[in-house]
Amino acid sequence: MSATITPVDASAADPAPAPSSRLRRYARPGAALLSGLLLYLSFPPRPLWWLALPAFALLGWSLRGRRLRAGFGLGYLAGLGFLLPLLVWTGEEVGPGPWIALAAVEALFIALAGLGIAAVSRLPWWPFFAAGVWILAEAARARVPFGGFPWGKIAFGQADGIFLPLAAVGGTPVLGFAVALCGFGLYEAGRQLRSRRAAGTEAGTPRDGTAGTVAVPARSDGIAVPARSDDVAGPAVEPAAGARSGRLPRGPLVAAALAVLVPVTGALAALPLVDDSAEDGTATVAAVQGNVPRLGLDFNAQRRAVLDNHVARTRELAADVKAGRAPQPDFVLWPENSSDIDPYANADAAEVIDGAVEAIGVPTVIGAVVAPETGKLRNTLIEWEPDRGPVATYDKRHVQPFGEYIPLRPLVRLFNSNVDRVSRDFGAGTKIGVFDLAGTKVGLATCYEAAFDWAVRDTVTHGAQLISVPSNNATFGRSEMTYQQLAMSRVRAVEHSRSVVVPVTSGVSAVIRPDGEIVAETRMFTPDVLVEKVPLRSSLTPATRMGTLPEALLVALAAAGLGWSGLRPVRARRTGAR
Fold it and tell me: Between 20 and 30 A from 420 (CA), which of 115, 232, 252, 446?
């Protein structure tokens, strides 16, 4: 039994008016740009984590089957649509130049991801390879240049999402991979279903068993030509085996379904790893938010104002404890830069800190800029004990380029004179920060370090039962930055199954349980103190134990897909030559 191919007029095969060539030309760039915008909208302070799924579905539609050069360009548009609004806070005080430059450079990584996704999109099981390529780009962006900039990792937009338990399985790489895979899988599942409907309609067998007729558009000279794959099932649909009989192989549909089901079922299976039980008892912790006298880069221009604010809040807490209005904390955490002058070099600063710590009567962690006589500045956390004073320090290990030190200073000065506000560069510490505060091991990751997987994981593998992320966000005003950073701490809580305390000079300060839930938080630019009892834990999640292994496996998956896509044309040419 055979099918009869009957030439028909193209308008009869597709009665709907074709879109104009101009609209067709801009459809994919528009979709790529929109996918980036949806990714941005999926990030805090909005609880719209699920928008990442249609974002990746749109990105998959725009990139699938494209040439590599087009994939790079479309990826760059998606990167700009994502990072320009996400990072607008970087220009809060220094103008649009640094913001646009940062977004433009970081978008290049997403452009390369677009190129890679376009390359692997012709492979079987391509959503898995495409999600791996995205994680490959994130891994590179977290490392280069200048130590990397992982802000905007897809995982950091998922603190409220259903995939969050996967952070405990394989950290931010596995969480981000799951989101991208599900989004690409949703697009591919829809594409496969459309292909099957089209094949069933145009090449189906009538009920009487006679051969069906396939309507094929005719050229102007009347010669029948095969319909383009675009006309049947959307862009870049390759003819599949079995299409001549109206039946398509099930393999691609199974792959698409698994691309959706694997992340969802994996997240459900990982739920038991999200545990906030108090394995090692509890600790009552106080986080002090003293506030700053003014917003912006000059938040500490008034000598000792920031320090005095934190001293005052700590003394108020001591009075409340004495009066029975607040529980006695086991230790107190101040934010990064909470002492705006060096207490080692300024006796008056040391004196007021000592008085506040004596009043509250428990170990207190102070944030200060320490200026040695020679060498670079240090962004230091100081463990200050009653009756003993400073007993231990932690120097921030990943200092922020263009914020705490200026790479390529002479060159950058040509474009922005604000570089000279950082007149003396900060240097990076080398020691992992874990303080023993009244018997509780507290891991320290200062502000920007919370974005880096290794900086937080190191503290847990070195015994931290609780994590503190002291921060200073005053230079970024009331922007979304502080909410984006707080979401990172929520993800870290689940990733390592630890309570996380985030004291911030100007807010938002918060106390987070090991399940990622915020149990207490402050408002921005309001003096406040949070006192909460939190569970202490010492067990290690699979993510903590495996370290970089999950990321390495996903990078290997991406490399395998890229290698396969590169070899396919070579193999095809050799086969054709035979």
Answer: 446
> Is 17 exposed, middle or buried, given 0-12, 13-18 or 19+ CB atoms closer than 10 A?
exposed
Q: What is the pTM of this model?
A: 0.87
Q: Tell me the β-bridge partners of 318.
A: none
Give the amino acid at 153: K
The C-alpha atoms of residue 316 and residue 310 are separated, in whole angstroms, by 10
| Residue 300: other Cβ atoms inside 10 A | 22
Q: Cis omega before residue 217 (within 30°)? A: no
100-144 pLDDT, tens digit each: 999 999 999 999 999 999 999 999 999 999 999 999 999 999 999
Sheet strands side by side (includes 466-468): 434-437, 440-444, 466-468, 499-502, 510-512, 518-521
**C-alpha distance from residue 544 to each of 71, 160, 453, 492, 539 (Å):** 35, 21, 10, 10, 10
Instruction: Give burial (CB, 10 Å; 0-12/13-18/19+) of 377.
Output: buried
Nearest to 365 by CA among 318, 331, 342: 331
- Residue 374: pLDDT band (50, 70, 90) is confident
E strand map for 334-439:
364-370, 378-385, 389-395, 434-437
Domain map of the chain by residue range? 21-195+254-271+551-577, 276-545
CATH number of 276-545: 3.60.110.10
Quote the CA–CA distance of 430 and 67 in Å, as a whole number: 45
- Catalytic site residues? 336, 396, 447
Q: What is the pLDDT of residues 318-364, one digit of tens each?
A: 999 999 999 999 999 999 999 999 999 999 999 999 999 999 999 99
pLDDT higher than threshold 80 for residue 211: no
